[in-house]
Amino acid sequence: MASFDTLWNRKNTNSLKYDCASRYGKPEGLLPLWVADMDFPSPDCVIQALEERCRHGIFGYSEPDERYFQALRQWFSTRHGWEVENSWLIKTPGVVFALCAAIRSLTEPGDAVLIQTPVYYPFFESVQANDRRVVKNSLLYRDGMYTIDFEDFEHQIVQNQIKLFLLCSPHNPVGRVWTKEELTGMGEICLKHGVTVVSDEIHADFVYPGHRHLMFSSLRPEFQQMTITCTAPTKTFNLAGLQLSNIFVPNQTLRHSIRAEMQRTGYSQANLMGLIACRAAYESGGPWLEDLKAYLLGNLNFVRDFLAEKLPQVRLIEPQGTYLIWLDFSGLGLSNDKLNRLIEEKAGLWLDPGTMFGEEGNGFQRINIACPRSILQKALEQLTQIATKEV
After folding, report:
1. Which residues lie below 8 Å from residue 328, measured CB to CB, with a gap of 6+?
2. Most buried of the four, 4, 45, 285, 347, by CB within 10 Å?
3. What is the pLDDT of residues 200-213, one digit of tens each?
């Protein structure tokens, strides 16, 4: 069993999380629990596969073989009950790259693209950077729970002539794992109005007990034909720096459009080391992932108990999935600016301010719990010492 309590020094490793504070205008020395990578080494099977490939010593243009696809097919079949075909697969350097390719290939400048806020901030950036218009279907927040406003969802589609909807499932940052009824409800509305769905399911492997992730494309044959499903091993196995995502597009017309757009960007073969790591992870990384999920559940339980006992003014929005938790700081009665200064300048922490995810994030912060529990405890203690003085 992997030891997730071990402290690994990530300083001076070109880590975005640990080595780039000054680039973001942050003071050095903050304890970082922001960007979504983990403070755990990838599983041994991945490291061994990469070491073996390194010893070969030649790193030319590469394409995966049938064994690569079989690893993907087995993973999604056994883990998610989703049967994929090799012809659907497009490999990209990341999910955000795929989002942008879909936006450019399936909409025109000035078109509106629908998102559900508060949401992963590159959704905004991908739409706006490509000269499209963001349209929001704000999630409903009631009694510590987020749900979908279906009436507004359809209204926004009709009013703004929406062609493309970016679905975040499981949802980052609010941690919802959408039910079959919720996914079907959105799918039926999109089908009715001819809306293509780009479904970001990169966090699919992180679901807490009592919940189940459903691949949107798998729910109905009609949904399959209107969906671009974005997956990657990078969140699951901490491989973000290897830049490899697997995008599944069953509809041939949509697939040709995405591939044509990728050709215009000049992108062709995927990162060799990403391919090697992905295959090894999906073939042999399952036991490591189960150990990791158990540890993350322990971290989540620790945060819940800590806040209840020592900082009840901060509310945990109970996550159903992901290792990114959404905290409601409104009980402290601080403005966003004062809250951010308290967290950064006084508590010495680097979190993700809620407003990064849309105006609906006012008073919230996102925190990454994929770290040794001692780091999580240190961060919460630093926060508590300062916050209790402010209220």
Report:
1. 144, 314, 315, 316, 317, 363, 364
2. 285
3. 999 999 999 999 99
